[in-house]
Q: What sequence folds into this?
């Protein structure tokens, strides 16, 4: 696939780094601001503006299959996408970082206006992150939550705590409900795919895949939560904090939000209906204590500063917070956050990356979720018509991977060894990132 | 301060008013008594002459572009004082003393409805028509009327339009102030006509229907019947008047959008209107309860009288469907509480105004919340929009001034009359433009027996209350008069 990326932000690096092995990537960059690290990638680098039709003609942009505009300037991205559309009908993805602009595009009503914006998809990383956090909060106790097959199947991540009944038992021994699978376990920061004999240890983070009902039973039997989320504390009132508060408010959850800047506080207080807006520093222990921030059912640290998020999270943990969701800006910090014991780490870049990988469709395969900061993936693929029907126990995948969900027509099946695969089945496969290519090859050759 | 400007603007208004004073002659023509047209001719003539004199002093200037804010305030105040004086001239011809006539006239223009009349049978129909007409003119605001009908005022219209009712919100329906004034008068006129039709259908004589409708829509309270609405002895009429009083106490700009532009959401999602309805219903039910336990209380009767009386006092109309001066103390207390609230901003009602009460409620709640969350940013929102700092300060100081003035006036009148009920209830009733109070100044009694000093104070209270204090308070500042003299 020919992919043209405009811009040299950290995100364009991430996309390029993720895709340069399988696809031909050209990175278009404005003069002067090229970071060293692009040199390590197998991509071609061209200097010029994405809005310059001459440059696009010169690099034969019309041959590319996908155009991703992710420079730091929103307006430049929009213009670049339009320019691209003038040359050829290439699929365009445009990155936006301002709420007002995003609304122009995403609003359902914009079809009423005279002319449509001719851009295929708009990505606003912070909005995607907000959705991710919202989804995670909606399930108490869970560390991560992904919806598969339109919510008919779900992926939950739980941490095994001291008083759990399943510590040091093998997966076979645990009486997990039917229709639940364990596709992955993270132990000491490493993700692996278990088998029936794998035993569960204290502090493991375990993924469960299954139908909604089965997972609810699981949660009730093994993770003992029956309380709904009623209160949420947010530290950092940027775009994510604001949008999240807005969403939570609508579902009747009580929200407290701490923001440093008085002007931003005034904006938040004006725009939010019931949220309690507190002006102060998220690392101010006295404020955290007097407003009992840590007592909320979930605490979310979402300032734009990784150091501050880390410190806040640790303070809150010390104050006894039950669930902490922390935003990380720099993907490199992911491991550190993980290491010091922060349960849920989210990143706008990871959210956006999932979205982009979704578009980079090849051979009916796409990525619908990134797990553990991109170490694992949930792949979605549709079996070709020529596929021979086969029982799962007779099938030997070349690598460790788990078929989590089979969708046949409108039926959602959580498979076991007796289930079989038929042509045109749609599969959700949990695999390690480096193995995904092999899985694709296995099914499509 | 440029006296020629002010004089010229005032002159234009007086000449126009001179024409309006001729209206009761139509009623007088239907009457057999021939002499009843004379008072209005004299009043009209004096208004014209006075107006021309003012114009002459003002060099017939029509250029008001340089009008200052303080001059606008002065024009508004002078208009009310002088127009009320002209309006008092006919009353003098019917045998009232000059002070009583002026009291009655001011009570009419400010839509208060407090009367000094002791015997209603002495006067002709044109007299009662005039009383109701001046209320109707004052209800929407005489300035709004003149801005609507006098294009000569031009830019000055804008200044004085907002100076007349310096409410917390500047709601204009259209970009141009003269159009807004016309739209307001249109909805006002239509509602009045509708009420006249309703009352006639319900069996009220046409003359009484016109007069009562004029007084209702203005939230005034003058009725040609000495026993007010109680005198008609009809439940239907009582309920009709209740409905129109509630409308009179709601914001006319919003009603214009609701009824004439077909946007009912604008009215019903308005927080002030919602709160206004909530007060009306809540207080009515409470009062109905008190009336029901009184001897002889019936369910329908107490509900009818309580709703009527709450609407009447809340909207500052001052009609009576029963002699509430005879009610029990808890029932009277409910009504007194209503006196302190008043109508909505931009309505015909006076008083503190619902929106300020709503604001004060939220302000106090915020103070309490702030104790618990010292670092919280807690904006005060009305209609989902944060109230700006300066507006907050204005509303707060308005309520404070209102209470201070009420206390001062109440104390002075109490000393003169040796009666605290007259002093304080009377002040609340006149400063809030309500009309009747309790006790000796109840709905079936009158203000006629008061000392002349009390009458003068109440007269002042009415004007100050109608102009929402600010123009009056501004005039107390010495600099108001010297500003811009050099």
A:
């Amino acid at each position: 696939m020919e992919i043209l990326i405009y811009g040299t932000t950290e995100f364009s690096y991430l996309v390029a780094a993720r895709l340069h092995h399988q696809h031909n990537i050209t990175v278009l960059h404005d003069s002067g601001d090229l970071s060293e690290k692009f040199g390590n990638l197998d991509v071609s680098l061209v200097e010029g503006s994405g809005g310059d039709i001459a440059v696009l003609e010169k690099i034969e942009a019309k041959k590319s299959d996908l155009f991703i505009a992710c420079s730091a300037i929103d307006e430049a991205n929009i213009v670049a996408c339009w320019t691209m559309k003038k040359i050829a009908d290439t699929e365009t993805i445009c990155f936006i970082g301002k709420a007002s602009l995003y609304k122009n595009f995403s609003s359902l009503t914009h079809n009423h206006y005279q002319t449509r914006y001719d851009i295929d998809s708009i990505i606003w990383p912070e909005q995607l992150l907000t959705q991710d956090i919202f989804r995670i909060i909606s399930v108490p106790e869970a560390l991560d939550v992904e919806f598969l097959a339109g919510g008919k199947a779900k992926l939950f991540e739980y941490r095994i705590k001291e008083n759990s009944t399943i510590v040091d038992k093998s997966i076979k021994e645990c009486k997990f409900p039917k229709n639940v699978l364990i596709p992955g376990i993270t132990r000491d920061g490493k993700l692996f795919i278990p088998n029936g004999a794998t035993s569960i240890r204290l502090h493991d983070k375990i993924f469960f895949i299954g139908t909604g009902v089965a997972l609810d039973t699981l949660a009730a039997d093994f993770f003992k939560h029956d309380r709904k989320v009623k209160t949420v504390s947010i530290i950092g009132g940027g775009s994510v904090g604001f949008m999240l508060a807005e969403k939570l408010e609508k579902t009747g959850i009580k929200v407290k939000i701490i923001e440093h800047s008085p002007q931003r506080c005034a904006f938040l207080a004006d725009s939010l209906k019931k949220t309690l807006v507190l002006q102060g520093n998220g690392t101010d222990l006295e404020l955290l204590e007097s407003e009992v921030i840590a007592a909320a059912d979930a605490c979310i640290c979402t300032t734009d500063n990784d150091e501050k998020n880390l410190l806040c999270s640790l303070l809150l943990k010390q104050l006894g917070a039950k669930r902490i969701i922390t935003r990380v800006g720099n993907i490199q910090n992911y491991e550190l956050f993980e290491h010091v014991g922060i349960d849920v780490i989210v990143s706008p870049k990871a959210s956006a990356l999932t979205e982009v990988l979704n578009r980079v469709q090849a051979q009916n395969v796409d990525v619908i979720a990134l797990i553990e900061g991109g170490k694992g993936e949930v792949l979605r693929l549709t079996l070709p018509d020529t596929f021979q029907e086969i029982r799962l126990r007779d099938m030997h995948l070349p690598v460790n991977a788990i078929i989590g969900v089979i969708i046949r027509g409108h039926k959602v099946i959580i498979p076991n060894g007796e289930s079989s695969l038929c042509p045109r089945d749609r599969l959700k496969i949990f695999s390690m990132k480096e193995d995904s290519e092999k899985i694709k090859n296995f099914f499509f050759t | 301060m440029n006296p020629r400007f002010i004089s010229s603007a005032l002159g234009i208004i007086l000449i126009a008013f001179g024409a309006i004073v001729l209206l009761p002659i139509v009623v007088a023509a239907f009457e057999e008594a021939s002499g009843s047209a004379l008072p209005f001719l004299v009043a009209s003539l004096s208004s014209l002459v006075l107006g021309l004199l003012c114009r002459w002093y003002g060099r017939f200037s029509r250029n008001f572009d340089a009008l200052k804010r303080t001059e606008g305030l002065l024009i508004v105040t002078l208009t009310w004082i002088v127009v009320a004086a002209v309006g008092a001239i006919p009353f003098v011809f019917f045998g009232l003393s000059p002070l009583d006539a002026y009291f009655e006239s001011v009570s009419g223009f400010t839509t208060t409805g407090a009367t000094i009349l002791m015997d209603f049978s002495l006067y002709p129909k044109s007299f009662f028509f005039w009383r109701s007409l001046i209320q109707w003119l004052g209800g929407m605001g005489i300035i709004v009327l003149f801005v609507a009908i006098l294009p000569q005022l031009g830019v000055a219209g804008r200044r004085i339009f907002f100076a007349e009712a310096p409410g917390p919100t500047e709601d204009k329906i259209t970009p141009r102030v003269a159009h807004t004034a016309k739209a307001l008068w249109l909805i006002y006129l239509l509602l009045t006509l509708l009420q006249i039709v309703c009352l006639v259908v319900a069996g009220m004589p046409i003359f009484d229907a016109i007069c009562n409708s004029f007084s209702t829509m203005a939230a005034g309270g003058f009725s040609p019947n000495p026993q007010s609405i109680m005198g008609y002895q009809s439940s239907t009429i009582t309920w009709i008047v209740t409905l129109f009083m509630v409308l009179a106490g709601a914001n006319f700009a919003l009603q214009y959008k609701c009824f004439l532009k077909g946007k009912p959401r604008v009215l019903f999602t308005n927080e002030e209107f919602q709160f206004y309805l909530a007060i009306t219903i809540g207080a009515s039910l409470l009062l109905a309860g008190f009336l029901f336990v009184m001897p002889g209380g019936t369910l329908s009767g107490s509900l009818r009288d309580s709703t009527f009386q709450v609407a009447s006092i809340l909207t500052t109309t001052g009609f009576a469907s029963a002699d509430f001066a005879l009610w029990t103390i808890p029932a009277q207390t409910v009504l007194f509480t209503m006196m302190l609230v008043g109508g909505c901003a931009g309505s015909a009602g006076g008083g503190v105004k619902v929106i300020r009460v709503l604001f004060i409620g939220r302000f106090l709640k915020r103070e309490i919340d702030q104790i618990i969350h010292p670092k919280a940013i807690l904006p005060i929102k009305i209609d989902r929009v944060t109230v700006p700092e300066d507006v907050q300060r204005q509303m707060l100081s308005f309520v404070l001034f209102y209470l201070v003035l009420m206390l001062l006036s109440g104390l002075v009148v109490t000393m003169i009359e040796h009666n605290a009920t007259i002093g304080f209830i009377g002040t609340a009733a006149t400063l809030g433009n309500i009309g009747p109070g309790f006790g000796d100044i109840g709905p079936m009694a009158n203000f006629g027996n008061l000392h002349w000093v009390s009458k003068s104070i109440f007269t002042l209270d009415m004007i100050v209350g109608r102009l929402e204090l600010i123009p009056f308070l501004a005039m107390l500042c010495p600099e108001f008069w010297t500003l811009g003299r050099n």
The beta strands of chain B are 376-377, 381-382, 385-386. Residues 389-417 of chain B form the longest helix (29 residues). The first strand of chain B starts at residue 376 and ends at 377.
